[in-house]
Structures are given as C-alpha cells and as structure tokens.
Specification:
The complex is a heterodimer. Chain A is an alpha/beta fold. Chain A is 36% helix and 12% strand. Chain A contains twelve helices and twelve strands. In chain A, the strands form three sheets. Chain A has an eight-stranded mixed β-sheet with strand order 2-12-3-11-10-1-7-4, with helices on both faces. The radius of gyration of chain A is 22 Å and the shape is globular. The termini of chain A are far apart. The relative contact order of chain A is 0.22. Chain B contains 27 helices and 20 strands. In chain B, helix 9 packs across helix 10, helix 20 packs across helix 22 and helix 24 crosses helix 25. The chains are: A alpha/beta, B alpha+beta. Chains A and B meet through helix 5, strand 6, helix 6, helix 7 and helix 8 of A and helix 6, strand 2, strand 11, helix 9 and helix 10 of B.
Chain lengths: 448, 800
C-alpha cells in the first residue's frame, strides 16, 4: 500500500466485522479549519437533531423528579454520565401531525410542525423544517449549510403510509414546503461529500472551478429553457435555478476552506457496517468530524425510520419494532419497547461522549453544540402526537440549563422548543408554525 | 409498512350504519326481469343509499344527490362505483346484494356511459413537464451513451417512490442531488475517457454476511466453493492490489477456520494466485471465554497485478475440499449455517477490495473509449483535433439529449472542449466536455413542452421525439437507441403500423428485461426482498442465497411470459417455475443440483403454481418473526385487485387506551381481535380474509400444515367473492374475474409508462386496453401494446 502523508496518528473509528475506518484527515483538517481565522472569538454555535421512531413506553422514560435531576429513569439511564448536560422535556405535542398517516406525519412534522398534504404523488406539501431555518442563518459560512443523515439504505417500494408519499417518511429535513432533503445513509458517500476525492489543494481548487463553470452553463441553459415554457412550468424551473445557485454558493465557500486542505486518503469507510449499532456509531463519528472540521453546523440524523420493522436481537428483542410499539398494554411488549428506547438512548449517549471528548478551541465540541433527540410519535399504541419524548443535550456555551426535567402542566407545542433551539444557536425567529412562545423553562434558571 | 389500525375508525357512524342496514335487510332482493327495463336509480336507492347518503356519508361517499341518469356529470364518483361493482366488493357482505347478472348490467350501463363521456371529452392527463432520470434510467443511459457499466447505487441517492414506482415523483432537484450529479459526471467522464492517470482509488465489494458459501456458486470455476465474482472497470493501465478478507464472527475471529483451506484470486477466469489459509494458533483466555487473536491473519490474501484499463471479472473463492456431507446432525440446515445458532463450518469471503492504479502506464482501447472516440486526430494540428472533437460531441449530445443537436448546443460543448484542450490536449478536452454534458439539464431531465399556440387545458399529440423517449423509457428504462431516434427524427413514429413495429422490435431486444427487473420488481414488491431479515432463530434455513433465488424465480417467470408472448393470467396459473438447487431444496423439489436456474414443470397439486406460491411474494409480505395476513391481504388488494384498503376517514376519535388484550394462540385467532372491534373491522374484514387464505405458507414461504400444534385453517375470501379454502381457492377466485386482475396490471403498467398516478380520468383507457386484450387471451404483450397505443400515452393535456 502506498502511504502518503499519513505520519499523522490515525484515528480508528470502528472495528467490528471488518468495517475498519481510519481517518488521518481529522488531524490535518483541524488546523485548516482554525487557519480560516475565525474573526469571532466565540466559537460558532451548532445544532444537531436525532430522530427516534415510534415514541416510547412512558413509565420507564419519564423521570420521577421534576426540576433539578439527581437521577435518571431507567430508559434514560445511559445518560447518567452526562446528567448535567441533559434536559428532559415532558408534555410537548405536535397537533398538526394527527393525520391518517401518523407515521408519515410523525416524521415529516417533527421539524416542521405543520400538517402534510395527503398525497402519494410528487405534489407533496409540508413546511420548511427548523434545521433548514437554522441553516439559512448559521449555515452560510460553512461549505455545507446542513447535513442530512440516516441509517436506512434500502427504500421500500409501495405506498408508505395510508396515502402519504414516501417522501414524508424518508425526509426529516425540508428545505421548503415542497422540497424534502434526501438523507444519506452510506458512510462512504457521506465521507466523500465532506472530504471529496482528496488530491492536492491545487487539484481540489481546479475541480471546484470546473464544477462552477459547468453550473454557470446549466444556469444559462435552464434560463433559456424557462422562456419557452408556460407559467406553471416556469415556476418549476425557478426552483431548479435556486438549486443550482445554492450549489454554486457552496462551491464558493468550499474554495475558501480548501486552501490548506488535505491529502489523498486511501482508507475511507469501506461501506456500511453489518451491525446496525456499528453503522449508527459510524454515522455519529462522521457527524463529530463534520462539526469539528466546521464543514457544517446543522445536522439532522434519522437514526431509524417511522414504522421501522427492524429487530434488535442484540438487546433481546427479536420482534420487529413497529408491531411491538402497538403494545396494547401487554407487559411483555412494553418491556421490550422500553429496551429499544433505552438502546436508542445509549447510542445518543455515545454521541454526547464523543462530543465531550473532542477538543474544540479551549473547550470541547459539546460546549458549542446543542443536540436534540426525540420522536414525532407520542403514545405509539394509539398513534397520537402528544407528550413526545424529547431530550436536549447542551454544553457550556449554550443558554440551555442542563440536568433538569421540564414537565409542563398542559400540552405545549413542540414548535416552542424549536424556537428556543433556534435562539440557542443564534438563528432567532419570532414565530414558527403553531408556536405560542418559547420553551422558556428550559433556559431560565430554576429555583430549587 | 405496517397498517395503522388505530386510525381506521368509523365508530358511531359505522354502528349506525349497521342498524340502518339491519333494518333494510329484511326487504327481499328485488328480482329484475331478464330483459327490458332496469331501474338503475332504484337499484342505487335499494342497495347503496342506506349508507352512502348525505347524512352518513359512509366511506366519504354520498350518492344521494348524484343522478345516475346523467353519469357524465360526475365521472369521478361513478368510476369509484364501477370499481367496487367490478370486484363485487359493494354492497359489503353480509348486506343484501343483487345477483350476478344485475351487477353485470349495472356495471355495463355505467361503463358505457363513462366511456362515451371520455370519448367525447378526451383527457390524456398531464405528467410533469420536467422528469428527472431516476437512478436506474441514469445507469442505463450511461451504458447506452458510453458503453460503460457503473454502479449507480454508490453514486446517487435512492429515488422516492410514489404510486408504487420510483419514476413518478421525479420532478425534484435538491442541491444535494445536484452536487451528486456533478460528482458523478466527473467520475463517469473520467472512467469513460481516461485522459489522465488518476490518483489511486479503491473499491470494496462486500459479500452479504448471510450468504452460504459451502457450495459451488455460479460464475466461479467448477471445483471451487463459495466466494464471489464481479465485474470491475479498471480506470487505467497499471498495478492494482487485490485484497481478500474473510468473514468474521462477533468475537471478530475468522469463522469456520479449523483446518487449512486454499483460497484463490482470479482475473477474467484465470488464477492469479493461490494461498493457504491456516487456522490461528494464538488462543487467548480472557475472563471466562477464549478467543483467538487473529487480527491480521488474512492479510496475506493479497496480490499485486498488472491490469489493463476496462472491464474485467475479478473473483475470489475457495478450492472445494471434499464433497462429503458437512454435518452429521440429523437435520442439517438448508443454509448449512446461520449467525445465530450454527457457526460456519468453513471460512467464507467477506470482501474483495481493489486499490490502484499504482505506476499508471497508459490506456488502451476500452469499450467506452472505442464508443466515444469515433475519430482521433492524426496530427498535432489543433484545428484538426477540434474538428474531430466536434463530431464526437455532436454524436454524444444527440444520444444524450435524445434529439437532433443544434449549433447552439454544440457551441457550448466545444467551448468546454477548448478549455480542456488548452490544459491537457485532445482527450482531456473531450473528457471535459463530456463531464459538462452529463450535468446538463437536457440530459438529466426529460422535458415535454406544450406546443406553441395550443389552447389551455386541451389535449395535444406529443412530438415524435417525445414519444420515442416515452417508449424507450417504458420498455427499456433507457434512452432511445439510434434506430428509434432515426425513426422519430424522420417523423415516422406516429404512424401506427410503424409504432407497432418498433414496439415489437424493442420487446424482442434484450433491453426489454427492464420490464422485469424494473417494472415487475416494483409492482410485486420484489425489491423489498433486499431489506427482509427473517429472524435467524426462527428461520435458521434462510440465507442470502435463498433471498436472491426467490427474486430470480419470480423474475424469470415474468420474463418468460413476456418473451414467449403468453397470457398475463399465467402469472397466477403457470404450471412451471424456475429453480436452482437452493430454491428447490427449500420447496422440497428433489434432484435439482447446481446454482444455475432451470425451468421445471409443476404438477396440478403443486402449491408453487403462479406467484401466489412463490417464496418471494410470501417472504416480502411477512415480518421477521411471523407471517402477517394483514400485509398479505394488503398486498393482494393493492397489487392484484387494484382496490387498496380504504384509508381511514378524518376526525376519528382515538382508540380507548386502557383496553387490554389476552394472549392468543394461532394467527387466525389473533386476527379475530381486528374483527371483533368494529373500529378495526371496517378495513380488516377486507384485508385479513385474503391474507389468511395464505397461512399455509410460513414467513419464508415454506408450506406448512400446522402452526405449532394447531392445523392451519386456510379459509379465506376476497372482496365480493365467496369463501374459499387456501391458496388454490384464492387463485380460482382471482381467475373468476380475470378482468380485475388484468385491469390492475394495466393500471400499474400505465402508471409506470406515464410516470404519474392514474385516477378516474384514466379508467376508460384501462378498460379499453383490458377489453382489447381479452380478445387476445390477455397476453402481456397485448397490454403493453395497448398502453402504447392509448391516447394517454401518445397525447398530453396542455397547461390549464
């Protein structure tokens, strides 16, 4: 094997069933990013959102304590080492998600809080998701305004949920009401998106320049096409033109950050790890990398899909997740559902661990990053969207106070929390979907 | 996807409806006279209005204000009615229903009126103006354009599925997708032309972990077992390193390595090198378990070899040690092993990676270079080079844009060529222009334009070139070939006999296999097989070999019906199927040896006649741990009967949360709960009986007569039909109304061909095609021809 500038210490992400990944670029990228000379002395704020499907079994999930937490409930126990960084919120709801295709709307409305249009066709209408609103503000300075990740590689064929197009189930992040962002689940492709092909900085720059001139031509071509069309079709082309301009912008930003950029790599992630847990952790590792290298500041991660029939034999649940979530109060099913919930939480805890361990300027990456994990479905047995399970993890740089359980007396819109998150990362807006205010309680200091 | 019970509620409405119909049930069914006047309005009043009136609006439908003597006023309503009457699913059992001849009359009355209305008011519908090539079409376009095979799943994100197909919701273009197209254009143009030595890259091919590798696999030499073989396009002449890795278990030890084994790596069928794989001697005790520290033990399965640019077959496999039985247990697993219970007896290949080129030395003639570089400049004159490049680009653009090329098209491409020529010469120039071409919207999108001066909302004939694209993407999932383009450019494609000739030519072409691998695999949900993971404890006999075998079996049946011009009904009745050893073992068919597929005849009693008995369908409609009559019923209703389960109405109150459940034994008993609760019964009384009739097949398609101790009760029914027993009864029930099955297939074909969801405006077209096909034994090719000849396929409605 030819070894290039790999005298740098390797960072092995994962060993297990042959999915070894070594990313020497990590060390090379960090100086490059800080060499960008951030003019602000405060570290940039970052936002991450993780989706877990099909709600939870409430009993072992909801902490018994309200306010300041000194212990965590059973399903949340993997988060104990990070108690001071987590805020558990109870009694949030998405009213608009109550549709006949609850799985589709749980997913699609989680970050948009609007009722999706019921259609199987491509005329879907949702809303602009909160991560994209954040990206429009804080994503302007990074090569990638946002990153959308998932773990499901194989698309199901057929109607996805009672008359709702599969786009609703597939996409958490929506750039506009009619534009779902596709998720990427192959770590190799994610890696390539983040670090490209490699090559010398000159080669990288030449590539970017080439792409830019192609896009100039595409813009021209589309504009002249547009003139020949009727009004409805012209509108469609406007969307395409916006897309192309957005890609041009990304190229411009990438050109800036490429100046001190890395090297050829010969060991990208080989492909998708066999074990789901390994796959999830690898995706988390890539998120940490992307944040640390400041390639993006907004990430959404669909850890599993709504209505997923995945089985979890590794934790003693060989039955598919979706039927289990229709537990009809059967104690055996409830216990299994709780196990799945806890498992998902443990993987989230892994992510927080990685954020804490990663240096970022004077502190850790967690200081400047806020991560939320939650589900768009509340009680999975009856498919409602009330009392959604939501946890926010934050660090020193956040205005969110950790180590607390915020339990509202009556149901509040999830959109309120979204507004708070947007504030927290510096992308303040006044109103979002059905918001009635901010989730002030997660940020105001509590009296003990 | 699971079906949401809790949201399908009628509650009070439904209960009320029960009462109202109970009252009406006492009235004897009116006996119509055999000829003379039928009182259609009276029939509606007697049989329908009890539920479908303005105050109840059952199922969201009221027929109260809708005049049956003026069918043309509300075709959208009457098409719905026709659908229900055709399948006999309304009035629902056990409501009073008229006799069969009354049904037939009413259906015929309505259809005649609807067809007449449609003929007078043609509406071919309007698929999107911009339709992006989906992944499959992109891959096929590259093959057509550049004679290059690429793996598009590594390059482009998957497409969303709408109305059951992934070529429908393709009007979108997100920035991420555009970026992927740019990256892909760069990679493809580089691989196709190879104008410059690339930096070393890598590709890793991974063998699914649940593939059994104890026997000979097709594509590998006799005398070997297991392993994998695949085609890889080497980008440049040079040195490449091929590394083989073996499967490891949860302790990260190589599986099955208890004796020495011989591994060989092959290139184009010739052995490059043979290696001895010895078991590890490094046992380490830790806590209570022993494991072998064998981290790099397969590092030596590595060869450096000089390879020329272009496609080559790379393979890694084991020399077969012996032909004796592997196990001495009384009932060895069909799969010989599974991860959970029974570890591998012999090692298996996990992955083959190819890294290179190192010391790149040049590039000769690859299939793609031969295709693209139709001329080469003989001197160093830049003018000659540009002339040659221009002719190359003109040809490429014509095929890529699927139309004759204009001067303006060419100018821009030539300017890209010039940029590349300046930096690196002729071939760099061609590659640069090709890269731009592959990112052009005229390549990536199929565009259908309303002609100048057409009235708003009026139907018009699509141009011959647009028709050519529709035709080739329908039959081949690929762009038109040179012959079709020529016919279209000459304006001859709209001539009906010429069109038919082209259709027949294209169906005879091997590219029509796309109808099997793209259309049928989506229609029948065969694609979902890749995601299926039956529980290893409950189904230790399942492996990837079986998964792939299932898919192949059903594909081969569809392919056979297509290429031998047979009736579509044979999909249900075929007295033959296709198996290899693995599938035959699973089905209990004796004396079938080898990994290749061959046709076998089936007896009358065989449960494998038709797709209802194929392992593929049976597995894809089950969960990992058990069968699901609900999924099966839904699949049948959606894909064969064209009547997907009704969506739940809005504003239905939530299910009572504190309701508890007792443990139930058989699947049938468990499904009873659906029917006991009126809120669930509404949909489940339609879905469950259909699926329950298939209970003799377990979750991986094996025949069973018992579920635990209880004998299987396979009584079932489909909407509008009598009760029957088992899959053979289901088959007969479907064949009793062949026009329903064929009509559904036609709907699916039409959706796929038009790239839009079909609705009531297309129902007359579907009827016409089905009726015409009935005269021709319901041949599959008749349906296809019918779709192509329909006005929906040849015309389009302009923007309103």
């Amino acid at each position: 094997m030819i070894i290039t500038k790999m005298a740098l210490p390797r960072r092995t992400f994962l060993r297990g069933l042959g999915a070894t990944v070594a990313l020497p670029l990590l060390d090379a990228m960090v100086p490059a990013a800080s060499a960008m000379a951030r003019t602000v002395s405060i570290a940039p704020r970052r936002l991450g959102i993780v989706y877990m499907p099909m709600g939870v079994h409430y009993d072992p999930w909801t902490p018994k304590q309200n306010g300041r937490l000194t212990e965590l409930s059973e399903s949340l126990s993997p988060l104990m080492p990070h108690l001071d960084n987590v805020t558990v919120v109870t009694n949030l709801e998405i009213d608009a998600a109550h549709t006949t295709g609850n799985h589709a709307s749980a997913n699609s409305s989680f970050l948009t809080c609007v009722k999706p249009k019921r259609t199987e066709g491509s005329d879907y209408v949702n809303g602009t998701s909160v991560d994209q609103i954040a990206a429009q503000q804080i994503g302007k300075e990074t090569p990638l305004p946002s990153l959308e990740l998932g773990t499901d590689l194989i698309a199901q064929v057929g109607n996805c949920d009672n008359g709702y197009a599969c786009a609703y189930m597939n996409s958490l992040s929506w750039a506009s009401p009619t534009a779902p962002n596709p998720t990427e689940s192959d770590p190799r492709i994610v890696f390539e998106r983040l670090f490209g092909d490699g090559g010398t900085p000159e080669q990288r720059k030449a590539e970017l320049k080439q792409n830019k001139s192609i896009l100039d031509w595409v813009l021209e071509d589309m504009s002249s096409l547009q003139k020949q069309l009727g009004s409805g079709d012209r509108h469609r082309v406007d969307e395409y033109l916006d897309t192309v301009r957005e890609v041009e912008r990304r190229i411009q930003r990438a050109e800036v950050s490429v100046s001190d950029s890395p090297l050829t790599d010969l060991t990208r992630p080989t492909s998708v790890p066999e074990a789901w847990e390994d796959h999830v952790k690898l995706m988390y590792d890539l998120q940490v990398l992307a944040l640390q290298a400041d390639l993006t500041r907004v990430i959404t991660f669909q850890m599993a899909r709504e209505a997923s029939t995945r089985t979890y034999p590794q934790i003693g649940v060989p039955e598919p997740h979706h039927p289990i979530s229709h537990h009809v109060d059967d104690p055996e099913k409830l216990a299994k559902l709780a196990k799945i919930n806890q498992y998902h939480v443990s993987l989230f805890a892994y992510m927080i661990e990685q954020l804490k361990k990663t240096e970022d300027g004077e502190g850790s990456l967690l200081d400047s990053t806020t991560y939320m994990i939650g589900s768009g479905l509340g009680n999975p047995n009856v498919h409602n969207h009330r009392n959604l399970p939501v946890i926010v993890a934050s660090g020193a740089g956040s205005s969110i106070v950790g180590g607390q359980h915020v339990k509202y007396d009556e149901l509040k819109p999830l959109a309120n929390l979204h507004l708070t998150l947007l504030d927290d990362v510096g992308a303040r807006i006044d109103q979002f979907a059905d918001s009635t205010g901010r989730a002030g309680e997660v940020i105001e200091p509590l009296t003990l | 996807m699971g079906f949401d019970l809790s949201s399908s509620m009628y509650r009070g409405l439904f209960v009320l409806c029960f009462f109202m119909n109970a009252a009406g049930a006492s009235v004897a069914a009116q006996q119509p006279s055999s000829s003379g006047e039928f009182d259609e309005a009276g029939l509606v009043k007697q049989y329908c209005l009890g539920c479908h009136n303005d105050s109840l609006e059952t199922g969201g439908l009221s027929l109260e204000g809708v005049d049956i003597t003026d069918v043309a006023a509300h075709p959208e309503v009457w098409e719905k009615v026709v659908k229900k009457l055709r399948t006999g699913s309304m009035p629902p059992q056990p409501r009073p229903r008229p006799d069969r001849s009354t049904y037939d009359h009413l259906v015929s009355y309505l259809e005649v009126a609807l067809d007449r209305h449609a003929a007078a008011n043609p509406n071919p519908g309007r698929a999107a103006t911009f339709r992006r090539l989906n992944r499959t079409e992109y891959q096929n376009s590259i093959r057509n354009l550049l004679s290059l095979d690429i793996d598009v799943t590594e390059l482009l994100p998957r497409d969303d599925v709408s109305f059951g197909f992934d070529n429908v919701g393709v009007g979108n273009l997100s920035p991420t997708l555009m970026e992927r197209y740019l990256v892909t254009a760069q990679k493809v143009s580089r691989l196709a032309v190879g104008s410059r030595a690339p930096t070393p890259g890598s590709r890793v091919v991974i063998v699914p972990v649940d593939r059994t590798q104890e026997d000979h696999l097709i594509g590998l030499p006799f005398g070997t077992r297991g392993g994998t073989a695949f085609t890889h396009t080497f980008p440049f002449d040079g040195e490449y390193e091929i590394q083989v890795r073996l499967q490891r278990n949860r302790n990260e030890n190589v599986e099955g390595l208890t004796e020495p084994h011989e591994v060989e790596i092959l290139l184009d069928g010739a052995r490059l090198e043979q290696f001895t794989m010895l078991p590890s001697e490094n046992m380490v005790m830790q806590a209570n378990s022993a494991y072998y520290a064998d981290a790099g033990i397969d590092n030596h399965l590595n060869v450096s070899v000089s390879v020329s640019a272009g496609p080559h077959v790379v393979a890694a496999t084991f020399i077969e040690k012996n032909a004796a039985l592997l196990e001495t247990t009384r009932q060895p697993y069909d799969a010989h092993y599974n991860m959970d219970r029974s570890p591998r007896q012999q090692p298996a290949v996990r992955s083959v990676s190819i890294v290179g080129p190192f010391d790149p030395s040049g590039i000769g003639d690859t299939p793609s270079r031969a295709r693209i570089l139709s001329c080469r400049p003989s001197s160093s004159s830049s003018a000659e080079a540009e002339e040659c490049a221009t002719s190359i680009l003109a040809e490429l653009a014509r095929r890529a844009y699927r139309r004759p090329v204009t001067v303006a098209d060419l100018d821009q491409l030539v300017s890209f060529y010039r940029d590349g020529y300046t930096s690196g010469g002729f071939e760099v120039g061609v590659e640069t222009a090709l890269r731009a071409l592959l990112a052009s919207p005229e390549f990536l999108f199929r565009i259908e334009r309303d002609p100048e001066g057409v009235l708003a909302g009026a139907p018009y004939r699509v141009s011959d070139l647009e028709l050519a694209s529709r035709l080739s993407f329908f039959l081949w999932s690929a762009p038109p070939d040179d012959e079709l383009l020529q016919v279209a450019t000459a304006g001859q494609l709209s001539d009906p006999s010429r069109l038919e000739a082209e259709v027949r030519r294209m169906l005879a072409d091997p590219r029509s296999q796309a109808l099997t691998t793209n259309f049928a695999s989506q229609w029948l949900h065969l694609r979902n097989l890749d995601a299926v993971r039956p529980d290893a404890r409950l189904f230790p006999d399942f492996d990837d070999n079986l998964r792939q075998g299932f898919k192949r079996e059903t594909e081969l049946l569809f392919q056979n019906i297509l290429s031998e011009d047979r009736s579509a009904l044979e999909l249900l009745t075929a007295d033959y199927t296709f198996v290899n050893e693995r599938v035959a073992t699973h089905y209990g068919v004796p004396n079938i040896y080898g990994d290749h597929f061959r046709r076998i005849d089936l007896t009358n009693e065989s449960p494998r006649r038709g797709i209802l008995g194929h392992g593929s369908i049976l597995t894809v409609t089950s969960y990992a741990t058990r069968t699901s009559p609900v999924l099966r019923g839904k699949w049948l209703l959606e894909n064969l009967l064209g009547t997907p389960p009704p969506p739940p109405p809005p504003n239905v109150p939530a299910l009572d949360e504190t309701r508890s459940n007792t443990r139930i034994v058989s699947m049938r008993e468990r499904m009873e709960v659906h029917r006991q609760n009126p809120q669930c019964a509404v949909c489940h009384r339609i879905m469950d009986p259909a699926g329950l009739s298939m209970e003799n097949f377990d979750a991986i398609g094996r025949w069973r007569d018992f579920e635990g101790d209880a004998p299987i009760d396979a009584a079932g029914s489909i909407p509008g039909g009598e009760e029957f027993d088992g899959v053979s009864g289901l088959q007969r029930a479907l064949l009793d109304r062949p026009e329903v099955f064929v009509g559904t297939l036609t709907e699916k074909l039409l959706t796929y061909a038009l790239g839009r969801g079909v609705d009531y405006i297309d129902a007359p077209t579907v009827r016409a095609i089905t009726k015409a096909a009935a005269e021709d034994d319901y041949r599959l090719t008749s349906l296809i021809l019918g779709v192509v000849q329909s006005s929906s396929f040849q015309m389009r409605r302009s923007q309103s």
